[in-house]
Amino acid sequence: MSSLHTSPKHALGSPLYYNSDSANYFSDCASVSSFESIEGRLDAPGVYSGHSTPIRSMNSSRQFTPEERLKLKEMERMLREAQIEKQVLLEEQEKSKLREINHLAEEKKKRELLERQLKEESQMREEMIMNQVKMREKTNSIQARPLTRYLPVTNEEFDLKTHIEAAGHNVDVCPHIAVTRTTCRGYLIKMGGRIKSWRKRWFVFNRNKHSFLYHSSDREDKRPKGGMYFAAIQDVYIDHLRQNKSPNPLLTFCVKTTNRVYYLVAPSPETMRIWMDVIVTGAEGYKEFRK
Q1: Is residue 19 part of a domain?
Q2: Each residue of 8-22: pLDDT tens digit?
């Protein structure tokens, strides 16, 4: 019993002392002190709290797992690819803008070139029209006067054959015409006045009768089918305008009278020139000659 009434100091300090109640007491005390000590360590990093999930340290010295490193590398790669793709798209947009600007500039140049060409063509067309008008006026003015260098001759002593030969024509070698001192005869093709048909007629230029008449044939004993007198002959010229369809436009010449214009076709160029030089000597109706 003496052992049961030992002092508390001895009981606490003795390792041999044991009791269930006292054991519970000491365990409670120990639990309280240990709880306080644990609670004091709860705030320390890397130590469990009262919950089942542990709290990891978030300082800079954290180590990533291999899986996390792979994910980070993949994200960095995707980010680089996105940046590259963005840069490519921006460059394509810039190129597209430049192409559009260049296309508009080329279209503008083409339009200006077409407008310039159209303006030049219009000016050329106007110039051509003006030149044609001037040439027409010039042709009309040319046909308004004889194309020979001879004027009508009224001298009764005038020798027609000598005059023609002096002009450079060799009458003897021209088989289509016969020229004497006062006459000239030969076949010419004449266009009708009312009916525009071409017929072969025998023409006689006679200075004694002051006439230029034509027959259906070379038999002059019959009445002539038509003709003119010297006083009615106003002009003799080559048919430059060619308004009528002649059998031979290059050998067609005109005799203008006060009533109408006679279109005649000679059988050869030399014959045409001789006839024109002959007829103009009797063109007493020539306006310049009258003045």
Answers
A1: yes
A2: 444 444 444 444 444
